[in-house]
Amino acid sequence: MIQQENWQLNGKWAVVTGGTKGIGKAIVEALSSFGAQVISISRSLPEGEEKITGVEYLKADLSSPEGTTSAVRQIRTLSPKLDILVNNV
Predict the structure, then answer these.
(1) Could you say which residues of the chain have pLDDT below 70?
(2) What is the pTM of this model?
(3) b/e burial code for range 69-82 (CB count within 10 A of at least 16 → b)
(4) How many C-beta neighbours within 10 Å does residue 14 have?
(5) Element (H, E) at 57
């Protein structure tokens, strides 16, 4: 287990692709717990209790150029900067 006091990401913006299930979801949870503002991108959105408080969720299919362009546009409206990218797709 990582000692949280050693890792602070307050004020940092992170984007995690494939962040709604499995390893991606665990990464989103960890980054959020360390204080980062997290944007999770996936082909499907989580519902109800699957959502992590404070995380922004975007629905996009990153396997197509159009989906990727749409995701980038949406990220730019939510985030003033990008500090961390986890390409988990």
Answers:
(1) 1-5
(2) 0.89
(3) ebbeebbeeebeee
(4) 24
(5) strand 56-59
